[in-house]
Write a structure and sequence with these properties.
Length: about 130
């Protein structure tokens, strides 16, 4: 078995909000009225592109957060099938807006921000939250 080759990973899809917090409960809320994709990494894209082995990766002092409306599906047709038609991105006009707010858990919870800012229910099933990263 070959070495693990570092690459982008950890994409989350079909979310309407995400919160990232530190150990004190202070963080960033990101939400949208549209479903979106996000990825949060302790490695920069540049590091992932330059590293040939995972041991070459050094955690950054901050988190890199990517927020995307859509992602192209898996498969390149290079050595296997391509992405299925329903998962291929096509050129089209679109509108995508996000809300980004700093918060502290002793003042607001992420679900209360989602309810207030996005007019969403506060059920835990709608939440994608990462704590302590």
């Amino acid at each position: 078995m070959g070495d693990v080759y570092p690459q982008e990973n950890g994409n989350r899809s079909d979310v309407v909000w995400v919160s990232l917090t530190d150990m004190r409960g202070e963080g960033l809320f990101v939400g949208s009225s549209s479903v979106f994709n996000f990825n949060a990494q302790v490695y920069s894209v540049e590091q992932l592109e330059q590293a040939r082995h995972t041991y070459e990766l050094e955690p950054e002092p901050c988190i890199t957060l990517h927020v995307d409306l859509e992602h192209y599906g898996l498969g390149t047709a290079n050595c296997g099938p391509g992405a299925l038609p329903q998962h291929q991105l096509r050129t089209k006009e679109f509108r995508f807006a996000i809300t980004m707010l700093p918060f502290a858990k002793d003042m607001f919870t992420p679900s209360s921000l989602a309810h207030t800012v996005l007019s969403l229910p506060t059920t835990d099933s709608m939440q994608a939250s990462t704590t302590g990263v």
